Amino acid sequence: MAVLGVVIIDSFYILLAIFRIASVIDKERVKLVLKLFGAIIVAIFGLHIIVGTFGWEVLPNVSLFDGIKTENSFVEGMILTASNPLTILFWTGVFSSKIVEEKLTRTDVYFFGFGSVLSTIFFLTVIAVIGSITRQFLPVFIISTINFSVGLALIYFAFRMFFKKT
Q1: Higher pLDDT, 74 or 28
Q2: What is the rounded distance in angstroms from the CA atom of residue 31 to the CA atom of residue 27?
Q3: Claim: this prediction has a pTM higher than 0.90
Q4: What are the boundaries of each domain within the chain?
Q5: Dihedral (CA of 154, 155, 158, 159) sign
Q6: pLDDT tens-digit readout, 18-27
């Protein structure tokens, strides 16, 4: 149920990213700015994940719903996702980079958005299942190593996107 709550809020943020970006993707100068913006946002998220493995913070931890407690995992998933305004920045960065890198049309952007929602459902469900199974025996070091690797992959993707010829 928590995954469904997260997916609903992520879908809303994805739609916001699509509508904001789709309205301006036809201009070359805008594509260059989107490429830079997307690369920076993705790199910052990668860096945030990497330094988080050491207990440091790059991005502020903003919570719009402090003090709200519920026993409902669906509502908690929605609140957790909605309380992180950086989520909209993440999705905007992802869509910006894909539009520029793949030269997506408006229709392609909508299909990419739909695929993003489906992949969010799939991967969050898989992660929830794996996490519930492995939390009893997986050492914190392994979890940190996995997080560090994800951060490196995001930074690599950001650099690759930034330096790719359009």
Answers
A1: 74
A2: 6
A3: no
A4: 2-163
A5: negative
A6: 777 656 555 6
The count of other CB atoms within 10 Å of the CB of residue 44 is 19
Q: Please calculate the CA angle 152-158-50 and round it to the nearest 5 degrees.
A: 25
Return the ∠ at Cα 152 (arms to 22 and 93), rounded to 5°: 15
- Smallest CA-to-CA distance from 70 within 55, 59, 80, 84 is with 80
The count of C-alpha atoms lying within 13 angstroms of the C-alpha of 22, restricted to the half-sphere facing its C-beta, is: 15
**Do the Cβ atoms of 43 and 155 come closer than 8 Å?**
yes
**Dist. CA 115–CA 41, nearest whole Å:** 21
Query: In the numeric block, which tokens belong to residue 32?
Result: 């260059």
> Three-state DSSP class for 52?
helix
